[in-house]
């Protein structure tokens, strides 16, 4: 196991003496070994990129990573702007809701308690229904109620 060539191996020398190989046979064996070494070398070159190609591939990967990082940063900045806009819109919606609650506090819809934060959604749904289906609300009381609502919300700035 520690000997790396036939000439240095004590067993190989005695085995070659016993086999009595001719010079021509020895040359053939040596050529086969040389051919196998070349085949292995050729295959290894095919499987491994030369350093220049490897460096180019690494550079391309680095460029790709830099581009992705830049795109990610841009997307994060855009998301921050959108989040700020959403917060602003939610704040404006809360202000409008409070203004509507304040303006309609004295107007009671049929079968509902006066408007407050707890019943706000139901109150708005009922109002929406009343305005989209005015033909169902033809009674004089309902017409007066709708007119009172119009007067109450006129001062709300949107």
TrEMBL record:
Chief place where the protein resides: nucleus
Keywords from the named record: Coiled coil, Nucleus
Location(s), subcellular: Nucleus
MF GO annotations: DNA-binding transcription factor activity, RNA polymerase II-specific; RNA polymerase II cis-regulatory region sequence-specific DNA binding
Bilayer-crossing regions: none
Coiled-coil annotated spans: 58-99
GO cellular component term of the entry, any: nucleus
UniProt-recorded name of the protein: MYT1L protein
Taxonomic source organism: Centropus bengalensis (lesser coucal)
């Amino acid at each position: 196991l520690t000997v790396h060539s036939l000439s240095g191996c004590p067993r190989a020398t005695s085995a070659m003496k016993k086999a009595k190989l001719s010079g021509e046979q020895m040359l053939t064996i040596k050529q086969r070994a040389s051919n196998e070494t070349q085949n292995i070398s050729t295959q290894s070159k095919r499987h491994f990129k030369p350093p220049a190609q490897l460096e180019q591939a690494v550079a391309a990967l680095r460029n790709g990573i830099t581009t992705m990082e830049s795109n990610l940063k841009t997307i994060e900045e855009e998301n921050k702007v959108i989040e700020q806009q959403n917060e602003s819109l939610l704040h404006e919606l809360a202000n409008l809701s409070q203004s509507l609650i304040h303006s309609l506090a004295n107007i009671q819809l049929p079968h509902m308690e006066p408007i407050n934060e707890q019943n706000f959604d139901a109150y708005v749904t009922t109002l929406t229904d009343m305005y989209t289906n005015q033909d169902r609300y033809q009674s004089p009381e309902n017409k007066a109620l709708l007119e009172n609502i119009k007067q109450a919300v006129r001062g709300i700035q949107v």
